[in-house]
Structures are given as structure tokens and as C-alpha cells.
Amino acid sequence: MTSELDIFVGNTTLIDEDVYRLWLDGYSVGDAVALRVRSGILEQTGATAAVLQSDTMDHYRTFHMLERLLHAPPKLLHQLIYQIPPSRQALLIERYYAFDEAFVREVLGKKLSKGTKKDLDDISTKTGITLKSCRRQFDNFKRVFKVVEEMRGSLVDNVQQHFLLSDRLARDYAAIVFFANNRFETGKKKLQYLSFGDFAFCAELMIQNWTLGAVDSQVDDMDMDLDKEFLQDLKELKVLVADKDLLDLHKSLVCTALRGKLGVFSEMEANFKVCGLIQLLSLGPLQPPVHCPTGQLCSCPGLTSRWRCCPPFARLTGGSLLLNTGELFN
Amino acid sequence: MPGKLKVKIVAGRHLPVMDRASDLTDAFVEVKFGNTTFKTDVYPKSLNPQWNSEWFKFEVDDEDLQDEPLQITVLDHDTYSANDAIGKVYIDIDPLLYSEAATVISGWFPIYDTIHGIRGEINVVVKVDLFNDLNRFRQSSCGVKFFCTTSIPKCYRAVIIHGFVEELVVNEDPEYQWIDRIRTPRASNEARQRLISLMSGELQRKIGLKVLEMRGNAVVGYLQCFDLEGESGLVVRAIGTACTLDKLSSPAAFLPACNSPSKEMKEIPFNEDPNPNTHSSGPSTPLKNQTYSFSPSKSYSRQSSSSDTDLSLTPKTGMGSGSAGKEGGPFKALLRQQTQSALEQREFPFFTLTAFPPGFLVHVGGVVSARSVKLLDRIHNPDEPETRDAWWAEIRQEIKSHAKALGCHAVVGYSESTSICEEVCILSASGTAAVLNPRFLQDGTVEGCLEQRLEENLPAGCGFCHIPYDELNMPFPAHLTYCYNCRKQKVPDVLFTTIDLPTDATVIGKGCLIQARLCRLKKKAQAEANATAISNLLPFMEYEVHTQLMNKLKLKGMNALFGLRIQITVGENMLMGLASATGVYLAALPTPGGIQIAGKTPNDGSYEQHISHMQKKINDTIAKNKELYEINPPEISEEIIGSPIPEPRQRSRLLRSQSESSDEVTELDLSHGKKDAFVLEIDDTDAMEDVHSLLTDVPPPSGFYSCNTEIMPGINNWTSEIQMFTSVRVIRLSSLNLTNHALNKNFNDLCENLLKSLYFKLRSMIPCCLCHVNFTVSLPEDELIQVTVTAVAITFDKNQALQTTKAHVEKSLQRASTDNEELLQFPLELCSDSLPSHPFPPAKATSVDYSSFADRCSSWIELIKLKAQTIRRGSIKTTVTVEKTSPMGEGNFRNRSAAPCANSTVGVVKMTPLSFIPGAKITKYLGIINMFFIRETTSLREEGGVSGFLHAFIAEVFAMVRAHVAALGGNAVVSYIMKQCVFMENPNKNQAQCLINVSGDAVVFARESELEVVSTQQPAANCQPACTGGEVTT
């Protein structure tokens, strides 16, 4: 007796979150069943392995059919074939577009091309993420990139609108797109210790302050491209990286100016380099004080308030980001 | 009378890419009705075209409006080659033809292609202007409303229930026409879809005409089926129950849905039932009852032949008269005669309903069924489908005479089905023989209400169980006892029915799904020989199916089956039988005895040991089941009950009987302490295996219940979450081990595993109940078995459930002792005011007595005939009672729900096989949904194999049903049923084809919470009214 056909179709499409995760992680049906067995589900429910196998197959089939729609999330909302409650739809999309930290670090800043895709099996071996999952994540990056590449307006908003992602995930995708577009190489040895979160933070500030979109929202271009002139100017900042004396001078001047004005002064002082980066990223091309690295930095309008409202401040402690950011522009 | 159909094509979205070069589509739309076609402009280069067309107007007469579907075809314009079809939408405009249903169809419809499935959506607006005013319009067949629901629809009231309507139309199947050899599969599929759509339209129109002739205005329990007879053609047939329905709309209408409209008195549910108890029947006034005028029914019977002609089994006066003289006095005889005469006017006194207005069902006799094996031949003249008509007429006569034999004049819960394999066809019909209250069957004056009140003092919840046949003249041997509830009437030991549990029935504990599964190998044969072989096998299959059902029922510690549906499927080399029913413990029936195992070969030590081991296991299982289903009837000593009735005759004089185990009785050690028990005799390995298989049925995991009736007996606090689903499994048998035994095991495993999978899948809904579990078996090929299940999972509140049952039992206990006195005393005041605030909660007024009174070794018979069978069990005599508060509450509730409520859940369309939606009130019926789809593929592997293909197709069918309902302005489909799912594959050619036919009623519902404002005036007594389908309230 062999089962030729075995399906279950609900008026409301059943989504099992655990199986969805296994599917997203790229496990085969067999592996997924084994993993589920190991999770002790059989004991909890009194089901048999055959039931589990059939259930897993069924879910996998459903996900496979939904995948086409997940490639264009607004379609998932408007389609009539699968009746899925909105909260579940959001979950499906969010999970589908979620990515692994380890994976994104490998491809961040790389061109999202066929060539890179060919290297995915290496990445898979290196990170221990299944090739299937790597492909999905890579394709997601590429798809989002393609859709928002030529769009005007806020990068985050565009991602959010076309892929219906949460704010958090949309920001991450904006960062990925930004890095991919500008080909910032993040794979360098010196940058290895930085997490995706660190880069995403940088990207956000850069998008906010350094891009053409930030300069003038009316401009025909968008959030992805940096202002060329500004980049030229930025090179002057290298002096801070190269010359230790100048850096110390800069530090003392800034500290003098800020002493007593800042609640987090001691931390700032201890992590000056990092804070310097934050300042740097916070500043836009139109704000001249950057061009003059000695002394006047502190007089930059809004500095203190920015400082205070930088939540990732603590996260960056201990890093010499500034130095390494310089690395990006070499 | 003509009308004007107006159609506007608004827009499309998500269209497929038809032009590879541009990745876009140049779409336009053809709108066709009858022979007229309109086209929109081409909307170039877009996957989301905005046509925004003018109104296309079709001037047509109403016959076409009813028959023809509106056909919308979306095409891709191609300058140089032929335009490519993207897909089609068929819209049944029937719902626009009744005054109270939808007024406009407007919405997004999936564009469907039989090869590619759904390809985008199209927004369409459809309206119908009828030229005549409402009244004149309703004289035509167009005005007749159709409902799939097998009870009186929730926002209507039955004024009269006229009776059975049936019709069938035949045609050649386009798939088998010569032209099919040269046309594309798509063209062939579309021709078929269109033809079936036309045929169902025609069928509905014809049935409508019959209903109008009977002066009805609606068909309830409408069931339409297709027989794909292959070479010999395509038959579309339908049965239903004609009714005159009144919409409950005015807030003043406080009447229970069941009552006739004329006077206030009608608030009291009728209680025609004669009181057969000699104490109280004295005052009943037979004379008054004579005033019922039973006008001979009109010309609707298609043949003028009186039904008496074929009642060979019964004396003309019916069995009732004999018994009436004995136990009930003249009144009963009179009533019987009257009812009978009312019904005998009809050719077939059949009702497709499974739930009834209170008071309608008086007694239930048991299941009657008939089967017939026919050889298909080409239908030569489709306009005169005489053979098919004659076949069904024959079967219906059979059913009718079986019902007569049970002392019943009507058949309720009636249904018909076929199973076709090559040129052999098994026609089956089954129903429940019953005695009905004539009041609902007549145009109606309601007289004698006052007098009737005198009789209304009979206990509720047991009346329908009382036997309708004469005790001395029983059609088959059965063991009768006095009713454990009222102690005045006789009841059978076990009761089988095809209907839902009546609302007023007193049930102890919960019910459960009981299935009997059976396979029989058959030699491959041709034509006559094949038909004969099948005919010979059928009686044995039925017998075994019943044995299994009975064993499993006993094993569950229950004594009645509701919703019994036996399906016999014929295949090339085997027959399959699958019976599903919901077992319950009826308080009125005696406690079932245990199952005893008897070995055939004594003096063998180990064997004896084995037997006793088995016996122990069985006893344990029974005990466990009793606990599981909360069956704990209070033990009442036999003195209270009075002396047991003398042994009834074992053999009826009319029928042959087979009494299987009675010979063994004497040698048994009856460990249950009961007088008798059901005996299983183990005389060979097969029997041993049978016993084993009894024990292998695993109960559902805790928190799960299942039943195949509308609602689960014993659960009445549904919460609003529902999940309807269809699950299909096909297994391939290895041809090596094809023995009956291996087959049975495979089939049993298939069903059990399927159920287990369902429980697992739906585990997040616990505590929940699978309701209306509907299994369908088909044998698409030699070694393939296909099982299709459709059901709905409904969540319920566990805590409340427990309290209710407890309270219920306590109450019944308490009342049991005082019962007799009360009965004599308080009928008058009880009946005269049926206020909703009545101090007695409805179902409680019943007295319940239980006893350990033993169950008799149940030897039950089969009436074996070559081509047909009767099966029945038990019987009834209803005495409807003090129940009036209950319907009252319902009436009020219905009323409140009439307040129009905004459709809060836009977009979501619920689907359920039940006639109601838990936690919500249906405020409007929008019309019947009846859709037929074909899907075919030549790239099976690419679509994910057979599973992927069918999964996608069923999802698409659901989507199309939902879209049509939403376009009608509805938010749910009730009484949804997948009537056919024919799946054929040819993996070698990478091809598969599937046909699906679904139907249901599109409705608008409003959540009860939204209605709460209105409902605050109502006391708690009617707090569970959503379950009017048959739940005992508190």
C-alpha cells in the first residue's frame, strides 16, 4: 500500500510556523521530519511518523505554492486563492525576507550578480547555512535591489511599500541595497569583527546625510548614490586617521567644548574615535564644519542633540570604527 | 417574461504575461449570454487593464435567464495570429432572479482556464432588470428560492412543507462526442463545463416549475448530482423538498420558525401526538382533530397512480390502525389515517430535510434503504430520459414500501446516490422512515390548539424514539422495552437514522463518529455477469456493514446512530462499503449491553485464555469509552421501571430474518451482569481479525471530538473559530496480496490514518470538534482507492461544556423521581403561556430515567433481496412536550437577527458544511452556489505531481466559490458540499484530469456580538441559539 496522493486544503490556509521555519532554512522534507521528530512532537501529540511525514509534505507543498506570491508580497495580499488572515500574511512575508547574519556578512557590498550566486555553495559550506536557504536570501536581496534600484524617494519607504516588510527589516534591506549599490567592500580583514548591525547603522546615517536624496529631495536621484563632490571633500578627513597628533588635538578640542554639556561625556571621551564616526556620519555634505576638522566640529549645530539621540551609541563602544570607515573609502 | 441583463467589465489585475517580448498583455473581454456576444476594447500592454466598459445589455426571456450562465472570456489580442484565450468566468445569475436575494453581482472573479488554472482576476458588475412587477414575476419559476441547507433556513419560517420534488435531465457527454477527437482538451473541457452549467440551470428551472405547481415558493435540501455515465451520456439529477417559506422580517413576528402563521396560538409548538398513555389520553379530544381538512394534494404528482398499488407489504389501512386500537385509542388511529391520507396523495412522501421544526417529527421507525444494480446503455432520446426516471421511480417505490412496513408513512433525511464503473451502475437511496405531524404538510388552518394543549404534557426528548409499528406485528425482530424516559411507550434497543439529532432529544454524554469499512473482492466480468456478481455481493456487504456498525456502537457504550450514510462503491475488481454515522446515548433507550465473545472450539486451554483475554480488552474499551464520552446514565433499579416487557416474538411474519447469534445465548457467561449481551462468535481467523479491528480504532486525541451530523451532541458552547477543509488521499494497493482481509486492513488503515492526520493538522484548534465529517470513497482504477473527506473543525469552550453536562445530568436525575406526578398535574399552565421567561429551561423539563436494564442479544435482520434492501432499527413515537420555551427563544432570536448588520469581515468568506455559523446569525440568504469545474494538465510533474495538481485545483475551487459569494455581497457559504471529485491520472503521459462539483448557500451573517444590543432583553434561556440545527440548549 503506497500513498499516491495525499493533500489537505483548508478554506483558511493552515500555516505551521515551525515547519515554515524548517522550509525557509532549506531542509528537505526528510530532514524536516527528522528534526520535528527530535523536537518531541510525536510524544506531545501522540501522532505517528507517517502522520508527521504527510503533514510536513503538505506544508512544504503549500509553501512552495505560496513562494511565487511571496516574491511580490502585495500580490499575496490581493490574491484570492489562499485565504490567509492578515497577521499570518505578515508573518509569512517577514520570515521569508528575514536573513541570516552570517550570510549577509558574506555578501554585503558584493555585486548581486550571477557570479556571486555561483559562490553561494562556498558560503553555504562556510556558514553552515543550507544552499537552498542561501539562494533564497540571495534572491531576496537581488529582487529587492532590482525593484528599488531605479526608484525615487526614500529607500526605506520604497522597500517597505513594495515588500510590505516591517520597519526594522526594511531598514536592513535599505542598508543591503545601499552597500550593494556602492560596493563598499565589507569583507576586508580589518572589518571582519563588525557585525551587520554596525554596517546597517552606518548605512542608515550615510543614507540620511550623505546621499543625493539627503541633499535635496527634489533631485532626480535617490537615496542610493553618494554626492560625488562630498566624497572628494571627505578625503580631507583622512588626516584624522593618518596623523595621530591631529587626532589628539581634535579630541581635546571637542572634549573641551563639550565638557559639562553632555551627560555621557566620560563615555564619549573614552570612545572618542567611535563617537567621531557618529558625528561624521551624522553630518551631511552641506554642513561645512566637516571640512574643517580641527576645533569647529563641536560648534556644529545640533551636535549635542544628535548625540543624545543616537541609541546605538553603546553598541559601538570599544570599536575604532572611524579608522575602519576610512578604510571603506580607500 | 423577459428581462434585461446588464453587464459591465471594470478592470483586470494580475493577468498573466501573454506576450513574451514585452512581458505584457493586450487584453480584451468577450461577454456572452445565450447567442449574443459583446466585446470590450483592447487595453494594450498592461497586466492590470482598466476597461471600464459601457453597460452591455442583453434582452432575454426568463427561461434563458434561468438556464444560461453568463460567460466572460478574457483574451489577449494578437494582430497577426488568432487571439489567445487567457481564461473564463462563468457567472450564474440565478441569485439575481429572486426578489429577496442579491440585487447586484459585483466583484473580482478569478479568471479560470481549464489547463492553466486561475490566471488573474477580473472585476465585473452584473444586474438584471425584470420588466414585470414582483407579484407577477413570482408566478414564474424564476421566483422559487433554492437552498442546499437540509433544514428550514434560519431566517425563514416554514408555512407548509409540501414534499418531494425531483427531476433529471440527460445529455450526451461532450467528452465522448466524435468532435472530441479533433478539438483541443481545453475546448472539450469548456464544452463540458458549459453544458453542465446549462443542464443544472434547466434542471433548477424545471424543479422550480414543479414547486410552483405545488404552490410552494422554495426548495429546501436541494441536492443536485451528476452521473458521468461515459459513453452512455451525462445525467444531471436533483431532489429536494418543496416548501412555502415566509421570511421572518417584521419585528413583531415572535413565532417559532416552525409554526404556521395565522394565529397567535401558534406560538405553541404543535403537539399532535396522541397521548397513548391511557391515563392522560382520556381527555384528548379525537373529535376535534377530525376537523383538520386534508385537502387532496394538487396535481404535482407526475403519475396519477395511487401509491397504494404497490404496498404489498402492508394492509391498506397501515399498520398503525391495528396498534392504535390496542394502545392508543381511537384518536391515534384517526391521526394516523389523516396523516397517512395526506401523505398518500403524494407519489413519494419523502423529505430531504435532516432537521425539522419542533413538533414535525412524531416517530422515527429506522433506516430504510434500497439499492439497485443497472447496466448502462446509451440514452437514445435525451428529451425523454425514461429509463433513468423509471430506475429511480422503482427505487423510490421500494423505499416507500419499506417505510410502510415499519408503520411509517413518510421518509425523512432522504438522499440518493450512484456509483458507476464502466457500464455498471449502482443506484442507492436511503432515508429514515418516520411518522410526521400532518400540520406542516397542509395549507394551514390551525384548529384545536386548546385541545392540543391537553396533550402536550408528554415528556420531551423521547417521543421520537417510540416505535411507530405495532408491537405484535413487528416487521422484524427487535427487543422492545418501555421508554426509559416516559415509561409509557415502547422503544427499541437501538435506533439507526439518517437524520440529525432532533433538538429536543435527551442525550447523555457526547457523541462520536462511528464508521464501518468494508471491501470485497469481485471477479472482473462484463456486463450482465458483472451486474449479477455485484447484486449477489451487495446483501452480504450491507449485512457486514451493519454488523460492524452495531459492534462499534456497543463498544462505544452508545445506543443510537444519527446521520447514517452508507456508501457502496463499485470498482473493476472490488466493492467498497463505507458507513459513517454519529453514535450517541439516547436517554430514552435502554443501556446497551456489552459484547460477549464466544469461542467455537472449547476444550482448548490456550484458546480459552485467548478468548478471555480478548473479552477483557473489550470490556476495558467499553469502560474507557464510557468515560471518554461522559456516558454515565444514573443507575436506577429495575423496580422503578416496572417489569420488563414480555419477550417480543423473534420472527416477524412478514419478513425473513437472520438471527445470527441467538443460538449461542444460553452458553454464555454474562460478565456484565446484564441479562443479555451482544454476542460475537469467533469461529475462524476472519472473525478473530474482525474483533481485533474493532479494537484498533483509536479514539481521537483528547480535546478532539468528531461527528458527521450538523453538531456534536453534548457540546453546545461553540466559539466562533471554524476551519472547513477537504482532504484527499489515494493509495495504490499492491496487487500481490489482494485478499479480502488485506484489502480491509488497507482500507481501514487509510481511513484511520486520514483521521489521525486531520487531528494532527488541526491540533492548534483544540478543544475542537470535527463536524459534518463526510467521507467519499471512489475507485478510479484497478488498484487505486481514493478517499475524500470534507468537514469543518469548530472550536468550543471546554469549561462551559463541562458545567452544562453536569447540570444537565443532575437536573434530569432530580426530575426523574417526581416525573410521573408532575406530568399529570401541570400541563395546563405550562402550555397556556409559552413565555420566553418560563421558569423551566427548555430541555430540562424532560424527565430522564435510566436503568441498567439489560440489552437484549440483538439479533437484527436483513431483508435480503436481490437488488435492494431495507435496513432499519428501532422506532419512535413522538410526544412533543413542554418544550415550548425553547422554540420560543429561538423565534425571538431569529427575529433579532433580522436587524441588518454591516458586513464587518470584508474579504473573508467563511465556508462550512453546516447550516449555521457558530457565534453568528445568518441575516440573509443570497442564493444557491452550484459550480462545476474541470482542470486538466499535460505537465503533471512540473505542477508538483498529482498532489500538487489536486492541491492547487481544490484551492482554486475554494477561491472561486469565495469570489462568487463575495460578489453577491455575502460573507459565508453554508451547507457547503463537494459532491464530486473525480480524479484521473496518467503519469506515463504526464497528464491528469479532475472534475469537481460543489454547492452551498451564499449567506450574509453577522456576529452575535454585533447583535448584542438587541439581544439584551432576552434572558439566558436562549443563549445558544446559533445551534438551532439540533442542539439541546442547556
From TrEMBL, chain A:
* Pfam family for this entry, one: FIBP
Protein name from the UniProt record: FGF1 intracellular binding protein
Q: What is the lineage of its organism?
A: Eukaryota, Metazoa, Chordata, Craniata, Vertebrata
UniProtKB/TrEMBL annotation, chain B:
Give the compositionally biased regions (Low complexity).
Answer: 290-318
Q: Which intervals hold domain C2?
A: 1-109
An example GO biological process term is: protein transport
SUPFAM superfamilies on file? C2 domain (Calcium/lipid-binding domain, CaLB)
Q: Which GO terms describe its molecular function?
A: calcium ion binding; calcium-dependent phospholipid binding
Chief localisation class = membrane
Keyword Acetylation in annotation: no
Q: Which domain of life is it from?
A: Eukaryota
This protein's GO cellular component annotations are: cell cortex; cytoplasmic vesicle membrane; plasma membrane; ruffle
Q: Do you know which InterPro entries this protein is assigned to? A: C2_C2CD5, C2_dom, C2_domain_sf, C2CD5, C2CD5_C, C2CD5_YbjQ-like_dom, C2CD5_YbjQ-rel_dom
Q: Which UniProt keywords are given for this protein, alphabetically ordered? A: Calcium, Cell membrane, Cell projection, Cytoplasm, Cytoplasmic vesicle, Lipid-binding, Membrane, Metal-binding, Protein transport, Transport
Q: Where can this protein be found?
A: Cell membrane; Cell projection, Ruffle; Cytoplasm, Cell cortex; Cytoplasmic vesicle membrane
User: For bias kind Polar residues, which ranges apply?
Assistant: 274-289
Q: SMART domains recorded for this chain?
A: C2
Kindly indicate whether the keyword Metal-binding belongs to this entry: yes
Function as written in the Swiss-Prot or TrEMBL entry: Required for insulin-stimulated glucose transport and glucose transporter SLC2A4/GLUT4 translocation from intracellular glucose storage vesicle (GSV) to the plasma membrane (PM) in adipocytes. Binds phospholipid membranes in a calcium-dependent manner and is necessary for the optimal membrane fusion between SLC2A4/GLUT4 GSV and the PM.
What name appears for this protein in its UniProt entry? C2 domain-containing protein 5
